[in-house]
What we know:
It contains four helices and five strands, in the order H-E-H-H-H-E-E-E-E. With 175 residues, it is α+β, with helices and mostly antiparallel strands.
Amino acid sequence: MTVITDEMRALIGVESEPRTAALPLSEEMLRRFVHGVMEPDPVHWDPEAAAASKYGEVVATPLFPMHSMRRPPGGPDPFDDFRENPDGDGTQAGRQNGLPPLNLPFKRVLNGGTEAEFFRLARIGDVITVRSKYVDLTERESRSGNPMVIVRVRTTYTNQDGEVLTVTTSSVIYR
Length: 175
């Protein structure tokens, strides 16, 4: 059984429109983030420690750009989707990456892992922009003999000057 259609294969290489964070990285935003992830390195919140470090200023953690796309003030509440679809999985049908949906016939969605490359750490005042791209669709048979599809999406995070901060490649398994 072939699940991946020619229309789906044609999406490989398709890139999303750029999505820019609603707010620049602030000291308070970063403080809350490093507190939440329990990051102990003071270069992420202490200006004196950061000034004495190789960075010379307060910097975000390497993976912070992945979490920079917050709901803008007054923006729609993502939990509203559950009113229309109480059995939804919270991914809003893949809309969070800005790519066209694949319309796969599966109910299960699994995280297949994320690879990350780091180029530069975000700094206070940076405005982060994100672009995603389908890089691969692979159909396989699961151990139980059922079809599954692995979707790989590459996402590039840049700052307001176009400098690349982080590039991630995420794998999502549909079964």
